[in-house]
């Protein structure tokens, strides 16, 4: 049993028509290393059909090609292609023969190439993909996740054929079941021995089991082995210990082996005791995330996925929710290693469409296979603790929608009974068809708004309760989107119901987190979103009177690019809301200072998007704004804040007037230093300061300087404008250029500017709030020199190496 990396040696181009051979039509092929997003480099335009939902990218189609030699000694073996994600409606051809297809661009699937192979000769693999108006966000296009080639003998373990489950945890041992599906594709009956050896994180052998198995031609069998692992270290977010199972098939022809990583841990959910991992209570400090990687588009390159998890955990999150499609294998691997809990999600729609050409067209035919693919991908990953069967599905408020929910939940449980099943229910959408009647029962729009959040008021109505009751009963955990008013309501009406805030407004975490902490039936909160993303442009952008028509817009005009609702921007830098959330979670004791842009003072519209945060920056450097009014926010776990500018107190006020743990002040900008002093009960409990930056210099740093020549490796270069003391210069943005020489290429470049015509493939970008980001990808073994320049500033040279 051998698994070969298959990400190198590809090219891509636009598709050719069926008569291209007769006409001689040709299109140049561009070499590419997978994972890759071909749509990222297409021209954006204001008039594309998908508009801002898809970040103003066009619909498009692409052809991926790979020519490879097949050794003659592979004859008699089973050769299959593993595609971890092909966006979208992929068709696979080998030597111009149709071999397989998949509709969903996020589904991991396998294609048997064996019947179409030419042994001892060159073979041509062609994969066609197409996308457009099929998502409510930027989906990308292409082979955006890894591709692998499986070459197996006649008797072999099936792909995804090893399933490892924690049976029970005891004081001195862990009991683990290993269930291995073995297949005989040969022409004679074979008896083989299946050996499983488990090693700990250091590689030391813990336990071995060996079992004979006889298989007739064409037969599959599940070999069950129970192992008793003495003093096994458990996996948890705070201690993500991993083990390895080496599974071997031994017969007279030799030994074939595969390895499977896994973690030992238990999960329980309970309306009185909440979520427990290994018996310990855990509250989910959650972030919803989309699948794109900013300047890389939708490409799920291993290091990009890992970096996102590292930065999200450093910002205080301990859980992510896949929005709204299954995560990549690379991201799950990172979550296992780093200790990030996962709610993996299957679909954004069932039978009712949300976009003109979305998955609802294929759902009735593919739902069971795609759910099975998600579970097969996830079940050995200890980080995955919840399966979600959908997001904001309109059908959940109908009897037949409840039937779908029950069928899917039961299907998932049959495949994996060890994890709870949830569904992200938007109770307001469940009654959207009778909204006027519901509004009238609530006393009209003004009364609904006065009662609190509009979404919550509708979602907590009697009509919503009745409509979602049956579909909610099919779940182990009810996910509620923007319906925190149901937490207490359901605790009384449905005392056996466990709830998770599967999607919440980011600005409300100060109010929501105490509700989670005080509600035993609620196991956590997932903000929309943890990391900013491409598409759904501007849903969290501030709205100003100087540029808007006075009404709240949830989709902004071209050239808006990102949603602007993340705690972290698309380059991975933290926004002020991230520090506020960290304080609310009780993970940060130091206060945080955020300053509104003086040039925009007083221009914000009175009604802002519920996904937005204040347009503030952690800076006291605003040249040209001396003497102008400015808004200052201070976030702190305190009850009073004193604000000092250049040593003099300019304001003092209570925390919590605008939001919990937040104080807002009006003062005048004066260069120098601003200090916020936090008090609790009259005693100072913390202080923080911002100083005006000096003369601008160019700074650059790289997260990894020693790289390996693999398809998963990247180096991230943070480019910043800083003064001699290291202070960030946010008001002197300028163009910066990155030049890469040697064994690497510039894979992408970006800033956090939410509205720009710059392209991710460009080597020159204008910084935004003093920052930009470049991504370097290795192309071979050797040195890489990265030079960062900007007119009028000294260049920065970084030396990297690839081995």
Automatic annotation (TrEMBL):
Domain Glycoside hydrolase family 2 catalytic: start-end pairs: 274-428
Example GO biological process: carbohydrate metabolic process
Pfam families: DUF4982, Glyco_hydro2_C5, Glyco_hydro_2, Glyco_hydro_2_C
Stretches assigned to the DUF4982 domain: 627-685
Gene3D superfamilies reported in the protein's UniProt record: Galactose-binding domain-like (2.60.120.260), Glycosidases (3.20.20.80), Immunoglobulins (2.60.40.10)
Database matches in InterPro entries: Beta-gal/glucu_dom_sf, DUF4982, Galactose-bd-like_sf, GH, GH2_Domain-Containing, Glyco_hydro2_dom5, Glyco_hydro_2, Glyco_hydro_2_cat
Top-rank taxon: Bacteria
Keywords of the record: Glycosidase, Hydrolase
Species this protein is from: Naasia lichenicola
Name this polypeptide is given: Glycoside hydrolase family 2 protein
């Amino acid at each position: 049993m051998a698994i070969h990396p298959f990400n190198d040696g590809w090219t891509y181009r636009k598709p050719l028509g069926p008569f291209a051979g007769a006409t001689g039509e040709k299109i140049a092929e561009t070499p590419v290393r997978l994972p890759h997003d071909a749509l990222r480099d297409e021209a954006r335009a204001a008039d594309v059909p998908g508009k801002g939902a898809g970040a103003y990218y066009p619909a498009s189609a692409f052809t991926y090609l790979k020519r490879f030699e097949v050794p003659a000694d592979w004859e008699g073996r089973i050769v299959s292609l593993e595609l971890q994600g092909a966006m979208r409606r992929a068709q696979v051809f080998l030597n111009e023969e149709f071999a397989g297809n998949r509709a969903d661009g996020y589904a991991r699937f396998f294609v048997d190439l064996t019947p179409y192979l030419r042994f001892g000769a060159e073979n041509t693999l062609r994969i066609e993909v197409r996308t457009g108006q099929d998502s409510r966000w930027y989906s990308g296009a292409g082979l955006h996740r890894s591709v692998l080639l499986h070459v197996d003998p006649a008797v072999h373990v099936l792909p995804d054929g090893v399933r490892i489950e924690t049976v029970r945890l005891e004081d001195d041992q862990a009991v683990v079941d290993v269930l291995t599906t073995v297949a005989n594709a040969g022409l004679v009956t074979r008896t083989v021995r299946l050996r499983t050896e488990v090693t700990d994180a250091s590689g030391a052998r813990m336990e071995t089991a060996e079992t004979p198995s006889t298989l007739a031609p064409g037969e599959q069998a599940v070999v069950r082995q129970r192992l008793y692992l003495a003093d096994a270290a458990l996996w948890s977010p705070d201690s993500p210990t991993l083990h390895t199972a080496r599974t071997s098939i031994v017969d007279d022809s030799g030994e074939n082996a595969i390895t499977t990583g896994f973690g030992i841990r238990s999960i329980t959910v309970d309306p009185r005791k909440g979520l427990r991992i290994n018996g310990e209570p855990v509250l989910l400090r959650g972030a919803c995330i989309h699948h794109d990687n900013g300047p890389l588009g939708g490409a799920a390159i291993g290091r990009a996925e890992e970096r996102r998890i590292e930065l999200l955990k450093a910002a205080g999150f301990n859980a992510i929710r896949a929005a709204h499609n299954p995560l990549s294998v690379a991201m799950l691997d990172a979550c296992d290693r780093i200790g990030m809990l996962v709610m993996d999600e299957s679909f954004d729609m069932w039978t009712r469409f949300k976009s003109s050409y979305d998955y609802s067209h294929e759902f009735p035919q593919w739902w069971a296979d795609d759910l099975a693919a998600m579970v097969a991908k996830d079940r050995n990953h200890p980080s995955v603790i919840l399966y979600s069967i959908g997001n904001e599905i309109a059908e959940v408020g109908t009897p037949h929608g409840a039937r779908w929910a029950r069928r899917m939940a039961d299907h998932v449980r049959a495949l994996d009974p060890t994890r709870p099943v949830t569904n992200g229910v938007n109770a307001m959408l469940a009654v959207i068809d009778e909204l006027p009647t519901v509004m009238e029962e609530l006393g009209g729009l003004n009364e609904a708004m006065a009662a609190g959040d509009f979404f919550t008021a509708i979602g907590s109505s009697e009509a919503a309760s009745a409509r979602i009751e049956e579909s909610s009963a099919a779940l182990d955990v009810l996910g509620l989107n923007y319906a925190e008013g149901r937490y207490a309501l359901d605790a009384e009406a449905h005392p056996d119901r466990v709830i998770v805030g599967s999607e919440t407004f980011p600005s409300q975490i100060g109010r929501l987190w105490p509700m989670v902490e005080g509600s035993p039936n609620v196991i956590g909160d997932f903000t929309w979103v943890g990391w900013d993303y491409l598409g759904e442009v501007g849903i969290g952008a501030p709205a100003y009177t100087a540029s808007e028509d006075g009404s709240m817009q949830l989709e902004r005009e071209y050239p808006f690019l990102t949603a602007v609702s993340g705690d972290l921007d698309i380059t991975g830098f933290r926004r002020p809301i991230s520090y506020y959330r960290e304080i609310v979670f009780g993970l940060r004791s130091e206060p945080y200072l955020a300053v509104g842009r003086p040039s925009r003072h007083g221009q914000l519209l009175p009604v802002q998007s519920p996904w937005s945060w204040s347009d503030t920056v952690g800076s006291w450097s605003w040249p040209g704004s001396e003497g102008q009014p400015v808004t200052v926010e201070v976030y702190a776990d305190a009850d009073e804040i004193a604000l000092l500018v250049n040593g003099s107190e300019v304001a003092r006020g209570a925390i919590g007037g605008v939001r919990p743990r937040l104080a807002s002040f009006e003062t005048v900008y004066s260069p120098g230093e601003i200090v916020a002093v936090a008090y609790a009960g009259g005693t100072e409990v913390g202080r923080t300061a911002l100083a005006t930056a000096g003369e601008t210099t160019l700074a650059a740093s790289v997260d990894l300087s020693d790289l390996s020549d693999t398809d998963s490796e990247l180096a991230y270069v943070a480019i910043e404008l800083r003064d001699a003391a290291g202070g960030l210069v946010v008001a002197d943005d300028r163009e910066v250029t990155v030049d890469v020489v040697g064994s690497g290429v510039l894979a992408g470049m970006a800033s956090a500017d939410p509205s720009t015509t710059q392209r991710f493939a460009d080597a020159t970008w204008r910084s935004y709030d003093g920052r930009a980001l470049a991504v370097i990808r290795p192309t071979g073994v050797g040195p890489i020199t990265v030079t960062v320049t900007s007119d009028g500033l000294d260049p920065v040279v970084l030396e990297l190496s690839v081995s």
